[in-house]
Amino acid sequence: MLLRNTGKTRGLLFAARVLVFFSAAAVFSLARPVPDHSPFSYAEQTWGMRDGLPEQVVQAFAQTRDRYLWIGTTGGLLRFDGARFTLYNRENTPEFSDNNIFCLSVSRDNTLWIGSEGGGLTSYRNGRFHAFSSRDGLTNNFVRAVYEDRRGELWVGTDNGLFRLDGDRLERIDGDERIPMLAVHAIFEDREGALWVGGSRLLRIRDNQVEEFQLQGESSRNRVKSILETSDGDIWVGTVSGLDRMRARSAAGFETVPEVTGTVRILRQTSDGTLWAGTIGHGLYLYRGGRFTRMSAPRRLPSNTILNCFEDAEQNIWLGTQAGMLRLSNTPVKTVGLPDASDSDAETVYEDGDGEVWIAAANLFRFRNGSVTPYRFPRIKGVRIRNVFRDRHGALWIGTEGQGVYRQTAGGLAHYMTSSGLVNNFVRAFLEARDGTIWIGTDEGVSRSTPAGFRNYQVRDGLCYFSIRSLLEDSRGDIWIGTDRGVSLLRHDKFADHPVVEALKKEKVWAMHEDPDGGLWFGTRTGGLYRWRSGRLSHFTTASGLASNSIYEMIEDPGGMLWISGPTGISEVSRRELDDMAADDPARRVTLTLYGVSEGLESIQMCGGEKPAGLLTRNGEIWFPGSRGPMRIRTDQPRPAELAPAVVDQVTGDGLPIMLSPGVVLGPDTAKLELHYGVVQLRSQERVRFRYRLDGFDRGWSETTAERVAHYTNLPAGRYRFRVAAFEMNNPQEIAETSIEIVQRPHFYQTIWFLSACIFLLAAASWSIHKFHVRQLRARFQAVLNERTRLAREMHDTLIQGCVSVSALLEAYLSLGPRDGDAREDLMACARTQLRSTIDEAREAVWNLRQKPAAVHSLGPFLRSMAEQVHREFGIPVEYEVTGEAFEFPRDTIHELLMALREAIYNALRHAHPRRVRIVVGFEGNECQLRVVDDGVGFKAETLPSLGLGHYGLVGIQERVERIGGRFAVNSKEGAGTEIVLYVPRRRSVTRDSDAVPTVL
């Protein structure tokens, strides 16, 4: 029988609750508590050979200004951006003669100094390595320490000597009367400017004064490995046998620290004031608040041999060990370890009214004052407890796996099972309604406590499914029941229809929440997050920016942030931002903070099958159960100050690396281009997202893949700019972007000059064709014109002249009387002969249209025949004379000369009225001069240009002479006769016609 709600006063209820506690304390057995004295939390991540280290042994760390972490290992030097390693060793770096990197240091000019065990000293700056050898003054290649003091002087400690860098040479400092010879393993400058040097001796050097300190114990056990001055002024010295300390302003010297054992290889003080002491074989010692604590393998460290400790600019702590590298990062998430707890897949957390947290993980635990205590009820033995719940009257309800429900009150312990009316003995959730009734969700339905007993709700009563996962009472008093197949709404003790019920009928509803504005939120096992507000159902998934579509539990803090647990970890998202997305921009991605790998949750499975699977404590912490204990999350954690810079750190073309200086130039035959990008962020990059685009090729931004490589194939020739934008999921507006120029060189036939040359050649060819066509047209026109001119000349010199001669003979014939019969017959015979000759010359002129010049002839016989013919026709003597050594002419040249000479003779006979005509032919060298001289009336030289008008003879003579490449001149005086001179070169053929006016000699 259930206890009734009697409605007693608040004081009586408080007294009953106190009585419950005291009665419980009297009967349960309390195990030893587990204190929590560690820092609130460091997230741990380790790297070994399988993660990219060349060898397991990590000995040194340093960080350059570009934020890269440099790691010295026994297998070479590594550059690390937080996600990827770049290895430098003897195989790819000629300056390295040994791969065993022992120490690293960065000087103020950003030079990385690398000390190796057997390979000497090497520097790295602006992408170039430089090795120091015996030629540079380094006489020992086992470099154990490199240190730059506040004056900028660089000190180098080796197995045999202390060196100082002077320019480009190393100067040995020890081995004289002032500083004895020593092996150096540690160098440190204190706040007073004194240089501490430790190794085979412990020296303090200041203002050329050297002081040696003696440590307690045998000298063989006091070899110094590390030196440090902490912020309080104490000097700490790690030796092969332990740790020594000299307090500030103390004259007592060094005293042994008994809490630390083993060889102290490294000493570091981090920004929070903690002293870290790494030992060989004894793990790591942390000193804070005047107390030492120890971290050891295998729980927290990969190895108990700690070789180096380093704090980077992001305040991550890096530990180099014999078995790999460990990063400790500050995180707001802390795992609460449960003593003697089995690894369970079902776990719940619940905060009691006094601030104590109950943890149900098969067994029951209580978290109080930073300690976890197993809690056992004497009357509840051998029972797996799933969850606990305290009602408003102070009664403690205990849900079990297979044993129903226990109810602890001041009056005792009550037990309810199916035999008592409970619907099922496997309890998954409790809910106290506003009317004080208790609702119990089980594997087979829901039970509600009533004064008369239990009222059960199952599938046959209208419940959508029997497997209960969550319970919620909304502000209207309706009860929502989430199951493995939908959600049911119970209103006024009856199942009601609702759009949410219809929409989620195939979803596994594991989490439900009502926000302060009345919105209902439903988290499903595989379907994402749903919100019901103002008659509208909105849906959010990974496409909206959620970390997972599986939601185990939801909690809203006072700042309006929704904390969601799921298989990928714990995420934090603004509920108001989700509201804005649903109202304005459903396609937008939500801003989200994910707590997962970066907080060490990669091996922890969150739990959510039973309730409560999360809570917001009174002190503002968020708790979620996990397979290795509950997760505690501070909600006031600081955000990173800025996003790390994005980088494009490697480019390959067709599988071969391409140098970045400053851009990338690809050959014409490069087909495949790969661009590797990332951010230089040494804290976890789990929340970092990227997008990239190639300006000039991509139309928009591309979301990136896990490999962080952009692939392009067969880029067209041209200039491009590759851009990478990096942002964190919880702050997508804060973007770090970088870019790099890429030039794809074209094949020669794709270049501008080649295309320009082709265009020019094409234009030139077109112009040449056009010119050729024009020349052909002009040549054809000129040929027609020349032929017309030739025909005109031939007609003038043959047909017309012949006709004139025939006309003259006929006129002479008519002038004779009948008594002059013999003379008239002679004149008629001459006319017939002249007419036949004229017809033959005309026929020859026509024949020359088709006939090419062939034979070569001498000029003399033709001149003789012409002189005789003219004399017969006109009765005026024509003298003929040839001088010099004659040479022969082509037939066309002979024809042109004869026609020109005949025209010259006929002109003289018609116009000059000479008494005689003289022809003189002179051959001189390669030129022939032909002179036609008459003793006629002559003419004035200034009238020569006007003679061509209506007098075709002189013009025809000039044209003929120029056609054969000769020259033409006229010399005349009024009353003194005329001389026409033709100059003809040897062996020249007809060339062209001309209409030029003859010159006067």
Describe the protein:
The N and C termini lie far apart (about 155 Å). The chain is about 15% helix and about 40% strand. The chain contains 8 helices and 73 strands. The longest helix has about 60 residues, at about 750-815. Residues about 1-40 and about 990-1000 have low confidence and may be disordered. By secondary structure, it is of the alpha+beta class.
Helices and strands in order, then pairings?
Elements: H1 10-27, E1 42-47, E2 58-63, E3 69-73, E4 76-80, E5 85-88, E6 101-106, E7 112-116, E8 121-125, E9 128-132, E10 143-148, E11 154-158, E12 161-166, E13 169-172, E14 184-189, E15 195-199, E16 202-206, E17 209-212, E18 224-229, E19 235-239, E20 242-246, E21 255-261, E22 263-269, E23 275-280, E24 284-288, E25 291-295, E26 306-311, E27 317-321, E28 324-330, E29 333-335, E30 348-351, E31 357-361, E32 363-368, E33 371-375, E34 385-390, E35 396-400, E36 405-409, E37 412-416, E38 427-432, E39 438-442, E40 445-450, E41 453-457, E42 468-473, E43 479-483, E44 486-491, E45 494-496, H2 499-503, E46 509-514, E47 520-524, E48 529-533, E49 536-540, E50 553-556, E51 561-566, E52 569-574, H3 575-583, E53 592-595, E54 615-616, E55 621-624, E56 631-634, E57 646-653, E58 656-658, E59 664-666, E60 672-679, E61 688-695, E62 702-703, E63 709-713, E64 718-728, E65 731-744, H4 752-815, H5 821-847, E66 856-857, H6 860-874, E67 878-883, E68 889-890, H7 891-912, E69 917-924, E70 927-934, H8 952-963, E71 967-972, E72 978-985, ...
Parallel strand pairs: 59-65, 67-69, 71-73
Antiparallel strand pairs: 1-28, 2-3, 3-4, 4-5, 6-7, 7-8, 8-9, 10-11, 11-12, 12-13, 14-15, 15-16, 16-17, 18-19, 19-20, 20-21, 22-23, 23-24, 24-25, 26-27, 27-28, 29-56, 30-31, 31-32, 32-33, 34-35, 35-36, 36-37, 38-39, 39-40, 40-41, 42-43, 43-44, 44-45, 46-47, 47-48, 48-49, 50-51, 51-52, 52-53, ...
Helix pairs in contact: 4-5, 4-7, 6-7, 7-8
